[in-house]
Amino acid sequence: DAVTPAQARVAFDQLEGTLTTVIAELDTDLFDLVSRLEASLDFPEERYHFVSRSTTTATIQAITKRVETLLADGSRNRVLREGRQVVILGKPNTGKSSLFNRLIGSDRAIVTTMAGTTRDLVTETIDLNGIPVRLVDTAGIRPSDNLVEVEGIARSRKAGAVADLLVLVFDRSRPIDQADESLLQETATGRRLFVLNKTDLPSFWPADRLNTEKGRGVVETSMSHQVGMDQLRTAMVRALDGDVLQRDSGSISNVRHLELLKLALKSLNQGAQSVAEGVSEEFILADLRGARTALEEITGARAPDDLLHHIFQHFCIGK
Hints:
Blueprint: H1 5-16, H2 18-41, H3 53-82, E1 84-90, H4 96-104, E2 122-128, E3 131-137, H5 147-161, E4 165-171, H6 178-186, E5 192-197, E6 218-220, H7 229-239, H8 255-277, H9 281-299, H10 304-314
Parallel strand pairs: 1-3, 1-4, 4-5, 5-6
Antiparallel strand pairs: 2-3
């Protein structure tokens, strides 16, 4: 079931047949090229008589580019379909829970000036520019002897280990200390977005302090003044590779369809290489037919079972 309007749009595009139309247009162009190459085989003394080598190359390249675009769009649509988990990490009192509340639009997480207020994971699903995001607020990470807080910190780290995006929150009004450095080291292999909070207070360190760290950007915010939230949402969408597609683009989110497009792309690349090497049309046609087969399986024009049906219908097998 669709959770966000963008998810519903992708589902509707598939029901409406937008994808089928786009694939059919690709297959029509490919079919025309195959027909011309087939005709050339009837006159072996006239190489590329019905289609020049340059036209063949240009046509394959044009179709290839459109397939690559569909694949790129398909990756983004999988983000829309499957959703993503975003985990907020940081020391106590950096503004994590305030940021969480601002993103979900309500006071879901308790916010106080007392360090260690959040002891367990707090989760909420939000619509982030069409992406269903499971947002997770966590216990502040710091050394502690309190058994409850230690358990909360352990859960924070586990949640961060499986997150699609880590939002690391730092208090820019306080110097970076060993806890901050440890957090940066622990999360170095993850997909990260840095938030420098409390910019309304005098700063102890510059924004470019994190430029050497691997991440998806730095956003400066002030939760108390509600500054920087639009920039943060935009940065999160970009970090999740979730740019929303325009309508009628031929949305793809089905894993099988994506794999078939990859097969078609592989065959097209092989066909382009065959043309460049000047090999016989038979080899080029074999590659292009492979691409057509993959595309037609997406639209249902040619399914694997159709071959068996044809055999049993036209030949005396099993009779």
